[in-house]
Every structure is written in structure tokens, then in C-alpha cells.
Amino acid sequence: MTGHVVDLDAAVERWTDVLLEHGYCVIPELFPRETIAALDADLADDFRDTPFCKGGFYGARTKRFGRLLVRSLLARDIVQHQLILGIVRRVLAPWCDTIQLNLTQGLALHPGAPPQLTHRDQDMWRGAIGETEYLVNVMWPFTRYTRVNGATVVWPESHGRRALDPQAPTGEFAVELEPGSALLFLGSTLHGAGGNSSGEVRRGAIVSYCLGWLKPYENQWLAYPPDVAREFSPELAALVGYQQHRPNLGNYEGQCPSVLLRRDVPHRFAATDALRPDQEELVAQFVREQDWPGHAAAA
């Protein structure tokens, strides 16, 4: 697979099964190396000029920056890879009406960077553990990821209800990756960046998707305000938050926030229901059964 999946539905089903069984999967050759090298080149100034992080979790020998969709047009390709989006939607569909982009982040692990604290990304939200999957992460390496230069360490089958186990899991290993391939893992999967004991910088990107009703890690509306998102495709604009999550979540003046991407935004709007089909039927039945003097006028 090099950016094109012949039987998309079958591939989505197969890789989703692997991801849900093990908590992670590695999909090889999703993009040509040349495409990933071009994306890396687009971000070269950001990798050079971004200051090192502050804090023990981010890492003092690590550089991170977001807003990749405005830093390189190629970032839009990795964010919207159809196989990835199909897997994410299949995994998260039981708990949401729509998915959203949680973050895009460039990441450079410099020589001497220590291992990262092991963690589960779902812990950024204080929801129920072991019942809900909140997000799916995708690691895109720009350089080769090896055990020596700090490849992500994953604990297989540490996800789902196993996140409730009182004993620490075993079996962890560094997931070595080639540019063009992708590492997917669940928000409930225990993981952490490895230490970089090499003399090279390990560069790549993290793209994360979460349930559409959560507050995302990266504030998408600040990262991509209407003047920016107006240039996105409707599908990409929806991913960064210009869509409602039924019922009525994330609305603007009672409308889907995508109205802000129009060239002629009205000054006033009519608040309009955005309901799931079951809710629409419930409301319709309620309205039909009303019998009071002001009913006709109010309806």
C-alpha cells in the first residue's frame, strides 16, 4: 500500500481488528518516502527554530509544535488518509456521532532525550476507564524510528479494560518504523517515547483523532480560525471542528459552525435543531401529541 488502498473497506476492517485486539498496529508503506521527505522539508524551519519544551513530561531535549495543517499542504494528506480515517471512525463510532481532529504535532527527539513517562493518552479526560475508547493516535515517522533513537515504546494488549489492572503490564517494546509507515495505537494503550541515546535527531509527526464531543488537546478553532478554515475542503473543515455533534453540540447561534466559512455570513440566524434520528422521532411524536390553545402558533 503506497497511498492507495485497492479494497478500502476490507483494509479498514482488517486493520481495525488488529488495532482493537492488540491496542496498536503498524501499517507499512502508506505514503512514498519522497512524500514524507517533502513534508519533513516543509517543516524544517519549525524543527530548527522551535524552542525546546519545558517540563518533565514534554521533555527538555524535545521540540514540539502544532498547527501542521497551515505549516504544510502535505499535512492535510496524512490527516485525511482514507484508510486511517476509516479505521478511526470504526473504532470510535460506538461512542460518538462524529469524530474530530484532536491534534497535529511535529515532534523532534534530540540526542540525550530521556525516556518519557509511560502513560495513556485517554487520561487527559477524566471519563470512565475500561468502557470507552476516546481517541486513536497515529505516529508518522519522518526519519527512521529505532530503539536507540527513541522509538515509541508500546505495551501490547494494555488497552481497554486492562487499563484497570492494578499490576503493571509487561511485554513492552520499541516500535521501529520506516518513513511512510504509520503506528496506530488507542488512547487506552500504555506507551511512551523512548530515550534517544544516538547522535541523530528523531523527527516525525503525531496525528490524533478523538470523539467529537470531547474538548480536543489542541484548540482547533484557535489553530484554524474561520479565515484559515475557509480555505479547507468541507471534509477537512469538519474534522477541525466546523461541524455539529448531534444533538446541537458545538453550534454557533444555533447553527452548524460551518456557516462561518461562508463568504456572506448573516448577522442573525434561526436556531435550528440538529438531532439524531431517534431524537427527531421523539420530538416529532411529542409535537404531534400536543393539544393546547397556543400549540398551533408555537409550532
**Rg, Å, rounded:** 21 Å
Helix proportion of residues, in percent? 25-40%
Low-confidence stretches: none
Mean pLDDT: 94
User: Which fold name corresponds to the CATH topology of the largest domain?
Assistant: Jelly Rolls
Count the helices. How many? Answer: 11
Structure class? alpha+beta
The structural domain count equals 2
N- and C-termini, Cα separation: 54 Å
CATH top-level class of the largest domain: Mainly Beta
Kindly estimate the percentage of residues that lie in beta strands according to DSSP. 15-25%
Architecture per CATH nomenclature, i.e. the level-2 architecture of the largest domain: Sandwich
Neighbour order of strands in the largest sheet: 1-7-4-9-3-2
Helix-strand string: HEHHEHHHEEEEEEEHHHHH
Estimate the global geometry from the Cα principal axes: globular
State the oligomer: single chain
Biggest pleated sheet:
6 strands, antiparallel
The count of β-strands is: 9
For CATH, the homologous superfamily of the largest domain is named as q2cbj1_9rhob like domain
